[in-house]
Specification:
668 residues; homodimer; acyl-CoA oxidase activity (chains A, B); 3 domains; AcylCoA_DH/oxidase_NM_dom_sf (chains A, B); 11 strands; 55% helix; fatty acid metabolism (chains A, B); Butyryl-CoA Dehydrogenase, subunit A, domain 2; alpha+beta; six-stranded mixed β-sheet; Acyl-CoA_Oxase/DH_mid-dom_sf (chains A, B); Butyryl-CoA Dehydrogenase, subunit A, domain 3
Chain lengths: 668, 668
């Protein structure tokens, strides 16, 4: 018998009744229009509403049991998606909000890389015939695959990969080897037990001469029995912090032979006689990474909004510590220090979602440019996708942690799901470009841009402010407006870029190589990059709120967005105050007024906090949280979840009889 | 057949050969002398060296299997400890370094609270007869117990606890009830299935009049069958983020009757006729919390040193990305940005360990004072234990995360153990006083101290600097010495305290109640508290390095400690630069010289980084990490651990045959 009330917790209802806007209006804005919101909800209805409960118990399961559940779950999901595609004529990835898929596979998807990346990789890197053969087999799942790039001893530095493919003139084959333990392929999602093929990037050798990296389609398991093929050593790498069901694998290859035609040959080729034709365009591979980083920004910003929803709803339901003694305990959302934990993360998730939208527009423009052979904006696009990936993942990781702590002890329950979100996001700081490595790349891009600025050249649009800001070393007149707040951040960024450049030059002058000087200037390079990214995010948020907007908005919604922007701008300037004060000597009164504005903006967001989160429109299955459900029946859900714990199946577990009781009676 | 070499990784050996000090000298200093180090190693030898392997596989196990393993593991450990106590005549808790116990029970200990807290609680809160009855039974384990304070709906605010104990005049019993779902006891470690008794803090009612909180010894499971007793609803609360084997439980009580003599009556009593005698000393309960917070500081600082050891050794072994192109990939510890991740956390763990030592001296002094009826230093002691608990746990949580990310993808493997350390530390920010709640308490203590300073009264020694710093609003002459760096932090703290006080007063003046004003000044109160704590930590570190020291040190060790202090002081001042610049307008050249000093101090620590970590002297079993073992055979260990993954037991898992293959053949 369920203890769950059918009603909404009255404290939460009160929040909804008293807000200045309706959640629906926010939801329409957040999801980019009524149509898109409708499609999202329709998908959720069909995919999430009648899924099995099994996978939702995954925190209690063993590593092996989670994998079993994830495979079964994936098959159900794939069938549903196939039905929907046929029935509704849906197509494309954009229409599938990733949050729907998370909700359907909370422990992760062992075939996510297969579906999301390998098929696309074969399409882009393979010839049309290759796509016909391998790509189609992937689409129908007769072939399941992984993308096996990273090695046990090699990650970031691709040229260092040890796996080699030697061309055998006699048999017209490649012979693949992972000659050392450190060259074992390590980490690829789904490679452990789920894939029967891998895309293997390896160094191509012809007559023992290295021709650089190429990609090979390598069968690893028998198409009938699924047993590993001769020369193949494959398995699961063992438990990770998160992504429990993803089946990350290892792969050793010993003289594994594949036909020459299994090398993906759209851009570079090996002919029958061993002639190697170099790819004319390296830029395309590079551009796929840009695309993936865009998606990471969107996904991770969404995950932050999920955590914010869970913590905010819980904070409206949870009552703790009276503010005035002898009065009842208040909703914890009324403690100012609690608001300081919740609302800035809400604003951050909005800021990064908006930055994603802007980034994605730029991506689409650049894609068009590339089709027309125009590559000039590519460095800018690349560095922007890098810095936003870094900032969004690191901000979210820190933010989810703050939000977890904001839920006190109950945030630590697996059933709160904030921990699970944290573990997912925690991986995103490392994959698809380790954050520090990316920051250094962006730092180097800033150095180049700055050098161009000094030479009087025109800068790319998103770094143009460096030029203006260099001229205007400080703000002439501080009014504290949003525009001023942005400008002061830009001036601080220009200043940081300037001194980083000076230090780099000084090191070169002192005789260091370019690489040594860059390493020794590394800390400042990463700081400049971070500031640069922040300026983009702040500018985008400011533009969304104050610029012209395509769809009409009620004054009430405008006000709410303004409150969030105010909170974001003030928080950001306070966070970087140590940089700001180096370029503009704000008076003590001005600094104190920023603190007051921070406090006031928290209070301004307070009445709408719950409906803003409602407006993120996360399905309960997606939140998968005892603390964050729409109805706010928190304690009842925690209680029911505890009752389901496998340890409670019997009044006294077996180990008590076999071990604990005899020990207790032994009179130690 | 093990792949593990019997030799030390040559990169790690080189680090040890080329360091400026021997690890042993650092270890003797760190552990407080040769004798203490010897005892620690002796314990490790006996406790850790021949433990079973089972529990080390816990990340692969289900929630239930982990519990079973933890129970078996605990029994073995308890027997060993008992043997050692008899054999070596060891006694006291201080001699048992907690790290030895972590190493022995990596998934957590379901009877940790029983051993570490309940017995002590009965000794302090119970009469001598009660200790004879209950305490002794606990010591021999015929009685196993949990401490059941927190409720599902009530944590921080103790007076809000709903559990009640009504005195029944007729039967001379107490009748215990948890009348609502929110009053269920929730979270106590070991309460799920392991304990047959609980210490239950509940509101005491006599003739329906509340007399305040008292503690009751409540049997919850049958002493013979271990089945829950009538009226008792008890079980495990379900999976948590960490502490997998701790068996946190829930407890509902419905008209559970216990003899009147089961109330712990050393300080307050209920007589047979229902007369209630109030405790004359509330201070003692309070003082136990102080003690526990001291231990948390020590434990968590130790955990940070564990994570630093793992990440630093890995960074010496891992090679990635050449610094100069066409040269081999370098040890990642040679990247400046990597040093920036590793070494400050090393310095932090040392800083907090030293702060603990100082705090513990103060604790012992205060304990003596209390025995002589002298309570004047108690508020200071209390607030110091609070702020160090907060700073150490939050610094460590952030630091462990940085260190995990510093290990790239492999840091995300469960077998790296950094994730497990993170999850443990992540709980410490909440338990034994939620960090924000504690910060607010310390903030209020600062307000009181500041008021006293304004009134010309003498301040407690650890806040005395507020008085001096108030007078000296800015540094007259900046030399950049360590003493200057500390002084500037103190002046910034005094300034923050001053403006917080002003804002609080302004709100009171505007008609807010004291509680409302405190809530509205909450953010600044927490900031002032944080700064205050940092000043204590910095002053302690400075004193250790530059002050007189009891035991002789080699000049080389002094130099190493000086390097670490320099790094700590510079990092700290840079972190709080936004506050520093408000009280002292450092010139741009002065700020840039701090940045240079940061970079130089990283380089100065570099050659000794590995031996410093060796000097923390963590047993391999304690680190429990494929990345951090003493011999540095990282890849071989990761490889062996992967091979042990249960999913790899058979070449093709069952679920492939039953589910995945049929799906792959279905031609979706």
């Amino acid at each position: 018998m369920s203890l769950l009330p059918k009603t909404v917790n009255p404290d939460l209802q009160k929040e909804r009744d008293n807000a200045s806007i309706k959640a629906e209006e926010f939801a329409v804005w957040w999801h980019g229009g009524k149509d898109r919101l409708k499609i999202k909800r329709d998908l959720e209805l069909h995919i999430l509403d009648d899924l099995d409960e099994d996978i939702y118990r995954f925190p209690n399961l063993s590593h092996e049991e989670i994998y079993n559940a994830a495979i079964k779950d994936f098959i159900k999901l794939a069938k549903k998606i196939q039905e929907l595609k046929v029935e509704r004529n849906y197509d494309g990835t954009d229409i599938w909000p990733s949050s729907v898929l998370w909700g359907a596979m909370p422990a992760g998807n062992p075939l996510a890389v297969h579906c999301g990346m390998v098929i696309e990789c074969i399409r882009i890197q393979g010839t049309d015939e290759q796509f016909e053969k391998f790509g189609k087999a992937c689409q129908s799942f007769s072939m399941t695959s992984a993308y096996a790039q990273t090695e046990l001893g090699h990650g970031t530095f691709i040229r260092g990969l040890e796996t080699r493919a030697d061309f055998d003139h006699h048999t017209d084959e490649f012979v693949l080897n992972t000659p050392t333990i450190s060259s074992y392929k390590w980490w690829p999602g789904g490679m452990g037990q789920s894939a029967n093929h891998c895309i293997v990037p390896a160094n191509l050798y012809i007559d023992n001469v290295c021709k650089g990296l190429a990609m090979f389609v390598v069968p690893i398991r028998d198409m009938e029995t699924h047993a590993p093929l001769p020369g193949v050593d494959v398995g699961d790498i063992g438990k990770r912090m998160g992504f429990a069901g993803v089946n990350n694998g290892y792969l050793g290859l010993k003289n594994v032979r594949i036909p020459r035609t299994n090398m993906l040959m759209r851009h570079s080729q090996v002919h029958r006689d061993g002639t190697f034709v170099q790819s004319p365009v390296s830029v395309l591979t590079y551009f796929t990474m840009v695309y993936i980083r865009c998606l990471i920004v969107r996904n991770v910003a969404t995950q932050l909004s999920m955590a914010a929803t869970i913590a905010t709803r819980y904070s409206a339901v949870r009552r703790q510590s009276p503010i005035n003694p002898n009065e009842p305990e208040v909703q914890i959302i009324d403690h100012l220090t609690q608001q300081k934990k919740l609302f800035p993360e809400m604003a951050n998730s909005i800021a990064y979602k908006l930055a994603f939208t802007k980034l994605y527009q730029l991506y689409e423009t650049t894609s068009q440019d590339i089709k027309h052979g125009e590559f000039s904006r590519l460095p800018e696009m690349h560095s922007l996708s890098c810095i936003l990936k870094v900032l969004c993942t690191s901000t979210t990781m820190a933010g989810v942690d703050i939000l977890r702590l904001a839920c006190g002890g109950h945030g630590y329950l697996s059933s709160s799901n904030i921990g699970n979100i944290y573990l997912d996001v925690g991986a995103s700081c490392t994959y698809e470009g380790e954050n520090t490595v990316l920051l250094l790349q962006v730092g180097r891009f800033l150095m180049k841009s700055y050098r161009s600025a000094l030479a009087g050249k025109k800068l790319a649009p998103t770094v143009a402010y460096l030029q203006n800001a260099v001229k205007e070393k400080s703000l002439c007149h501080w009014t504290g407006s949003w525009e001023d707040l942005l400008k002061i951040l830009q001036i601080a960024t220009a200043h940081k870029t300037h001194i980083t450049y000076e230090n780099l030059m000084a090191r070169l002058k002192a005789g260091q190589t370019e690489a040594e000087a860059a390493n020794n200037t590394g800390i400042e390079l990463t700081q400049a990059a971070e500031l640069h990214g922040i300026c983009f995010v702040a500018a985008t948020f400011l533009e969304e709120v104050t610029g012209p907007h395509s769809k009409p908005r009620s004054p009430a919604l405008n006000k709410v967005l303004g409150n969030l922007l105010e909170l974001f701008m003030i928080s950001t300037v306070l966070k970087y105050m140590h940089e700001v004060l180096r370029v503009h000597k704000l008076s003590e009164a001005e600094i104190r007024s920023l603190q007051t504005r921070l406090e006031d903006s928290l209070k301004a967001v307070r009445p709408d906090a719950v409906v803003i989160c409602d407006g993120f429109d996360h399905h309960d299955r997606n939140l998968f949280s005892t603390l964050g459900s729409y109805d706010g029946n928190v304690y009842e859900r925690i209680f029911e979840e505890a009752k389901r714990c496998p340890l409670n199946k019997q009044p006294v577990p077996e180990v008590i009889h076999t071990h604990l009781k005899p020990f207790m009676k032994s009179n130690l």
